[in-house]
Amino acid sequence: MKIWLIRLVVVGGLLAVWEIGSGTLFDGYFVSKPSAIVEAFWELLASGRLFYHAAITITEALAGFVCGGLVGATTGVLLGRNEIIGKALDPIILVFYSLPKVALAPLFVIWFGIDIEMKIILTATIVFFLVFLNTYTGVRGVSRELIAIMKLMGASEGHILGKVVLPSVVTWIFTGLKLSVPYALIGAIVGELIAANRGLGYLLSNAAGQFNTAGVFAAIVAIVKSRSWITGRAPSGIWTAAIWMLSPISSPSRSTTIRSGMLSTEQTTSMPCRTMFRMPPRRSPGARS
After folding, report:
1. Rounded CA gap, 118 and 257, in Å?
2. Which residue, 118, 207, 209, 131, is CA-closest to 169?
3. Between 2-21 and 34-47, two packed helices, what is the crossing angle to 10 degrees?
4. Number of helices and strands (H, E) in the chain?
5. How far apart (Å, rounded) are the C-alpha atoms in residues 178 and 231?
6. Distance of CA 62 to the CA centre of its chain
7. Distances 57 to 14, 204, 208, 225, 234 between C-alpha atoms, Å
8. What per-residue confidence (pLDDT) applies to 81?
């Protein structure tokens, strides 16, 4: 309770100084004041413009998140299981990963225009590298001894992938998805700031182009609220809560054994080969039929 009281006093004091000092201590044209920002925000809210532009931004972020996550996880598993191709492409992928993805936005504008597709592709590119690197690292970290044992048992690549690799890497995939949630929204807004006529980023750039300081702050407040609603901790953050519920690793007690229909490492090593793959028992050469 004391902590919340201190926070309220600090925030209230700053807002009071801002409101009173605007126009006296500092130029109100450049910093505006809280009352004007609330008025501009309410105007966006009452006119319905806020909901319209927020829906556009969330759609772009969600579509890019899904596309980038699926492609990143799939590519990470495939390259992680193919050692030769993985080693050949590893330095190339790291070069693209080190490149700030925001720098690709002007190029995407030339290639795909300023419509919603450009923002989705930019967002998917950002999400792809985060999910891919997590997935690739997880696949490369799977126990080599366990894979070798399963190969000696006669397991096919499909068995190894379904019984060992995917259960081991699922934690890495969901970690990458959780990390990429806020970056998906950032990618969509950056794309709108560069070239757009819709979205929260457009509201921000449009207000800045008109030198409307109160409108800029109102757009920033809208972006912050949208980000907290989407990427906040469960259950307040919608995406975070959805990923948390979908993740089979929802508590520390289940971090070593993965269930939900998949075999754990302990189950795989202790289960007989003929039980896992339903292979008939072998007969010794001298046994009678």
Report:
1. 41
2. 131
3. 100
4. 15, 0
5. 9
6. 10
7. 31, 12, 18, 13, 21
8. 78
Q: In terms of Cα–Cα distance, which of 14, 43, 79 is closest to 212? A: 43
pLDDT digits (tens, 9 = 90+) for 44-72: 888 888 889 989 998 999 999 999 999 99
Residues of the chain with pLDDT under 50: 234-236, 249-289
What is the DSSP annotation of 147-201?
Answer: HHHHHHTT--HHHHIIIIIHHHHHHHHHHHHHHHHHHHHHHHHHHHHHS-SSSHH
Q: How far apart are CA 85 and CA 279, in angstroms?
A: 32
pTM check: above 0.85: no
Predicted confidence (pLDDT) per residue in 96-118, tens digit:
878 887 888 888 888 888 888 89
The pLDDT, as a whole number, for residue 253 is 37
Structure tokens at 79: 């390259």
- For the chain, how long is the longest CA-to-CA vector? 104
**In this structure, which CATH number among 3.40.50.300, 3.40.50.1820, 3.30.930.10, 1.10.3720.10 belongs to the domain 47-248?**
1.10.3720.10
State which H helix or E strand residue 93 sits in: helix 83-98
Annotated domain spans of the chain: 47-248
User: Which H or E run includes 20?
Assistant: helix 2-21
- Nearest CA-CA partner of 75 in 140, 131, 159, 126: 131
User: Of the candidates 135, 117, 122, which has an alpha carbon nearest to the alpha carbon of residue 187?
Assistant: 122
Query: How far apart, in whole angstroms, are the C-alpha atoms of residue 8 and residue 289?
Result: 85
